[in-house]
Design a protein that fits this description.
Blueprint (H helix, E strand, L loop, with lengths): L7 H6 L1 H14 L4 H11 L5 E7 L5 H14 L4 E7 L2 H4 L19 E7 L9 H11 L4 E7 L3 H6 L5 E6 L5 H8 L7 E4 L6 H14 L13 E3 L8 H16 L3 H37 L4 H17 L2
Parallel strand pairs: 1-4, 1-5, 2-3, 2-4, 5-6, 6-7
Helix pairs in contact: 2-6, 3-6, 3-12, 11-12
Bound molecules: guanosine-5'-triphosphate (GTP) and magnesium ion.
Length: 315
Amino acid sequence: MTRLAPTLEAVRSGGKRALADALAAIETRAGSADLAALLDAAADAPRGQVIGLTGPPGVGKSTLTDALVRRWRAAGLTVGVVAVDPSSLRTGGALLGDRARISTDPEDRGVFIRSMAARDRLGGVSDQTVAAVALMRALFDRVLVETVGIGQSEADIAFVADTVLLCIQPGSGDSLQFMKAGVMELPDVVVVTKADMGAPATRAKADVEGALTLYERRDGGWTTPVALASARDGTGVDAVESALADHARWLDGDARRAARRERQARDWVTQAIRARFGSDGLAAARRFEAAVGAAGPFARERALALELARRLTRD
Ligand SMILES: Nc1nc2c(ncn2[C@@H]2O[C@H](COP(=O)(O)OP(=O)(O)OP(=O)(O)O)[C@@H](O)[C@H]2O)c(=O)[nH]1
Ligand SMILES: [Mg+2]
């Protein structure tokens, strides 16, 4: 028996249990009309800021997530966390919470943490993650998505995040090399983690600031700030939080956030169709998409995919 995906209202009023059910529907009812309706309703009613927290393995992403979640909760904000789990590539399913290193009160209704499988490469954001974030964005004041990666996964996280927060580890040249080579998407905020390491951390901050001067932002007007923080002893977490708040304010000026989200939704539909049907399929979809007329991205992707599949199997 396949149950229908719940409505957004039911998820809103049903607490963590209802959200868990809806996330289960994302995993089992992909491509169904009722799920697309739920996701489009959610996409149309965004509530919170989505922060994409990324960086190489072990840089301190989860520890920083934990520190940010505590602060937000202390300020009365509700929080949803999606930890994209690359280890699930080996096991075939996300291992709930094992990498999340986040210790929250299970009784706290204002925080929800979910681990999800990565796509085919390290830290890549799957369609399921895109869907989960759209849903959680309608429910929580802050949604934080943790992905592992240096380089490509930053482009992925840009599909879902309002603000991309890149973590850099003191004394490791990797991410800096990527930045200098222009391989990575430019993050909105950079944090050098493990500030309690002292001199290497301070040096890393100066290096990052140097690397950032090599960039020219396409979306002018925002300068990527570099914070130095230790989630372990708590120093600098304030600076991270205020950089995130500054970026949120900047996005809200001139309706940049809405434009960014619209672009993300369009880009996601494009890449989802291309992933399934290739460039030829995408080109074909371009020719009939105007006739499809579905309003939300999830219904649109579904309609395009159905029509392409129908054409492929037509005798
Ligand atoms: N000294 C110091 N160590 C830290 C700090 N934050 C995290 N660590 C340590 O760094 C290691 C990795 O921390 P995580 O928060 O799990 O890092 P992560 O980036 O989430 O790791 P993955 O999810 O495995 O990629 C752990 O041993 C942490 O205790 C910090 O501020 N200072
Ligand atoms: Mg982690």
